[in-house]
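User: Hey, quick favor. My workstation is busy. Could you predict this chain's structure for me?
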Amino acid sequence: MTSAHVDEGQAGKGRPGGNTGDAGADGEGYQRGLGARQIQMIAIGGAIGTGLFLGAGKAIDRAGPSLILAYAIAGLVIFFIMRALGELLMYRPVSGSFSEYAREFISPFFGFVTGWTYWLFWVVTGITEVTAAATYMTYWWNIPQWLSALVFTVILYGANLISVKLFGELEFWFSMVKVTAILGMILICAGVLTVGFSDAGDTATVSNLWNDGGFFPHGITGTLMTLQIVMFAFLAVELVGVTAGESKDPATVLPKAINTVPWRIAVFYVGALIMILSVVPWSTFKPGVSPFVKAFEEMGLGVGAAVVNFVVLTAALSSCNSGMYSTGRMLRDLALNGQGPRAFTKLTKNGLPLVGTTFSAALMLVGVWINYQWPGDAFTYVVSFATISGMWAWIMILISQIRYRRMADAGTLPQSSFRAPGAPYTSWFALLFIGMVIVMMAIDADARISLYCAPLWALVLFVSYRVLQARTPDAEKTPTGTR
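Assistant: No problem, here it is.
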């Protein structure tokens, strides 16, 4: 694609390095090309990816049927986080979202940390997703994982060199495939349980949820140790916040998308796992193998297993595609606030942050090297680091909402039209739950590597911010018009 960059100028909200071209109708320069059905499906599809389709295999092996309870409780916490985000979005919908709110309600430094950490999260998640996609390819062909990862990264980068409207349309259909597949799986499992067809018909029973070692076969500890995998599965639900700057009607569309979180989790996570673990005993599932594919194989539906493998492949690529979308926007928000290279502020004539997207895609090629070096352990390494970096965004959302609510209740800021129920208590509960997950990660030898990397990343950001302060004193200022 040949890009035509518009000139850099002064953006709305007083932020440096903005865009005054005709790339969009709002102060950020983006096109508002995402409609209601696209936002809804992005919100639904964002929560259905590698964490459910592949990561659940390892979680089932560790926790057994009690994984259902872990998903239900974690899902409630996710709803609290999303309602906190919704309150902030209706106060001020911007594409920078989490970093903007951290910048306003905590400090410019935390806005800087949040923006770059969320960008890193999506880069690492992109690596995770192409790793998963490469794993799925081995179901059909014996080809090197690194080669598949390279091809997928290049293809998805090309797919992002399009208009935001087309991006939304592609994500709509990607998400539709995922949703249809899970609903189909639930219906087939329900048929096996009630009618008894397939190879698993004679042994399929709801009592499989407690017959093989009980509901907690590895005790409460085994369930708690899966929390980082469970929380990883929910990462990306906050992506709707990044779409705020390109949504046609954010005041109407975003609250509706957020309010669908409970039934999404109830159907796609809790419901699907209840069905699968009732039809196939939990001890059948092993790490590294999609429980959806394994369930079809155990039912003797080989064609169904191949279809599901294609669907989970689509899910991984869809999530990576969303990641490339998000990274470009987050880098541009940082640059507009003087906290990133000015080159990232440039947009194409179609309103695309091409420079930031290209930079992010180039770093995702690290995933190719990881798959070449450690094809068997690649997924575990990147999942743990993606989880800790993604949860940082949730922490900033919650703290920002608590501080915003305090100021709004005091009358110093306008009230949001979409107040989070039960806040700030629900926000404090969510923060404590995230803290418990981090403790579990410290105990888990596989996940602990992410906690080793986190201080190093924090040091890099601290030094970078000090250099930024020395070179650009204005970076300390809160953007004009945000208070």
